[in-house]
Amino acid sequence: MDPRRGESDRNTCINPVTLYGEFTLTSNRKVRCSVNLTERDLVVQRLTSAPVRRNKVVLSLRDCVGCRAYREDANTDPAAYLAAYFYPLKRRWMSSGVSRQRLEQCFRLAALQDPRANLEEAEKWARAVQERSARQQHLGHGLLMSELSCPCRMMLLVNPQSGKGQALTLYNNHVQRMLNEAGIIHTLVITERQNHAREMVREADLSQWDALVIMSGDGLLYEVINGLLERSDWEEAILTPLGILPGGSGNALAASVHHYSGASPVSSEELLVSCGFLLCKGLVSRMDLVSIHLSGSPRLFSFLSLAWGFVADVDVESEKYRHVGAARFTVGTLVRLASLRVYKGKLAYLPAAEDPKKEEGVSNNATVHCNNQASSPTQVSLLCRPSRDSSCRNTFHNSCHSNNSLKVRRSDNTPSRSATKALPGPPGTLLLPLDQPPPGDWVSVQEEDFVLMLAMYQSHLAEDLLAAPDAAPDDGVIHLFYVRAGISRTALLRLFLAMEKGAHLATNCQHLVHTKVRALRLEPYSPKGVITVDGEVVEYGPVQAEVHRGLARLISG
Ligand code: ADP
Ligand code: MG
Predict the structure, then answer these.
(1) 3-state SS of 507-551?
(2) N or C: lower Cβ tally within 10 Å for the chain?
(3) Taking the model in full, what pTM does it have?
C-alpha cells in the first residue's frame, strides 16, 4: 500500500474537498486551472504539461473578504465569471514585517453553451466561498454560524479635514473597493464641521444602519459615541456596531484594533488595509466606555484616554504639526521635552480587582446573542445578523440588551448619589460628587508633583505608541499611568521611545507608575492647564472617571 495514501486520506478527512471545477483564468484564457474549494482553502492549480514553478496556490478562506459571480457580455459570450477577493498577510518588500496585500482570483466558467447555466454554476461557487469563509472565521472563535445574511448597510462618516486632509483620497483608493468586494452597502457621509457627526448621529434613524463606521482620527469617533449616548434611546443606540478606519493623525483606536487582531505592527496605508479587512470580516465585540465627569460641563463618554500634563500638552501643541500625519506626536513630544515642567495636583483611584471575574458592574460572562442559533462570550459576526429589515435588527438589539443589563451590586461605597443619574447614558455607580471626598476604599496617591497622568482603555495612544500592551477592549479596566516629578528629560524620552514597542514598563523607570483601576479622580491645583479626552480638549479643572464595562460594540478582529 502506498504510504502517502494514508496521509492524503487523513488530510481529506480534516480538510475535505467540497467543490471541484476546471476553469480558465480571466486574465489569460490559455491558462486552465483546477480549482478545489475545501472547508478551509481555495486551492488553484495550473493544468500544464510542462513543469511550472509554483503552479499551485493555496488561499486561506480566512483571508477572503468576498466573492461574486457575474457575466461580462450578455450577447456574445456565454461564459460566466467568478471573482474572489483575498487579503493575505505577505512579507513586505525589503523588510522583515508582514502586512495584508490584496489578491484577486478571477476565473472564467464556460463549460456549457447555456449562459444561464454557466452563471448558475458561478453563483453556486460564489455562495460556497462566502459561506465557508464566514464559517472559517467563526471556527477561529469557537463558533459556527450556519447562515449568512444579506449584505449589511454601513454609514461611513469621513472627516475630510483629519490628518493630512487625505481621508477622502484614502477612501477612494482603498476603502470603496474593499467594501464593494465584501458586498457591504455603504453610504458615505462627509462631515462639514466639528460636531456635525455628533448632531447627525443624535438624530439619525438608526434602524437604517447595521453599523456606523468612522474614517478619521479618534476625534470623530468621540463625537459619534457622545452623540449616541445623548439620545433618549441611548441604551439601544449604543449597541450599534462601530467601526474605525484610520484617516487622521491620531489613529489610536485603529492601531489598537489591528493590535488586538494579533498582527505585527504596521502604519499608514497598511494599517488602513488591515482595518478595512477587519471591518469587512465584521466580527463585533464589546468595548468599554469611560464616563468623564467635570465640575461645570455635562458628563462625557470616552473610548480611549484621559490625559493631563505632558501627554495632554503634546496632544494640543501638536495640532499645528497635523500636516505631518501620525508623526505629529513625535514632533510634539520632542518640542515639549525641551520645556519639560511639573504639574501639581491630587490623584485618587479605585483599584481594579486582581481577578477580573470578581469585578462588579456588568456581568463578566454576559453574552452577545446574534440570534437564537449562536452565541459567543464576546463576539458575533455582523455578517450573520438575522436580516436586513429593521424588525430583525431590533431583535438583535433587544436580545443583546437583555443580556447586557447592568447588574450593579451596591455596596456602601458604590453610591446611589451620583449627580448624573437622570441624564441619558448609564447611571454612575462608583463616583461621589466632586465636592465630596472620594469613597473610603479609594487609594490616594501620596505625591502631588507629576509630569503626566494618563488613563488608557485601549492598547494604543497613537499609531506608534503601544501604551497599554495588555489592554483588551472589554476588560473593564482603566490602565492608569503617572510619571512622578524628578524624571530627567533623557529618561522621559527613553520611556516614549520604549513605548513604540510597548516596552516602557520593562524599563524599570522609578518615576513611572502603572496600575489598573475602575475609577479615578484628578484635582489639578493650577488654575490653567489642559485636559484631553480621546485627544480632544475638555473643560480644565477637577475631573473624575469610571469605566462602564462592554457598553459599546466595536467591529474588530
Ligand atoms: P485627527 O486625528 O487628525 O485629529 P480627528 O478625527 O481627531 O482627526 O478630527 C479632528 C477634529 O476635527 C475633531 O475635533 C473633529 O471633531 C473635528 N471635525 C470633524 N469633522 C470636521 C470637519 N468637516 N471640519 C473640521 N473639523 C472637523
Ligand atoms: Mg484627533
Answers:
(1) HCCCCEEEEEEEEEEEEECCCCCCEEECCEEECCCCEEEEEEEEE
(2) N
(3) 0.87
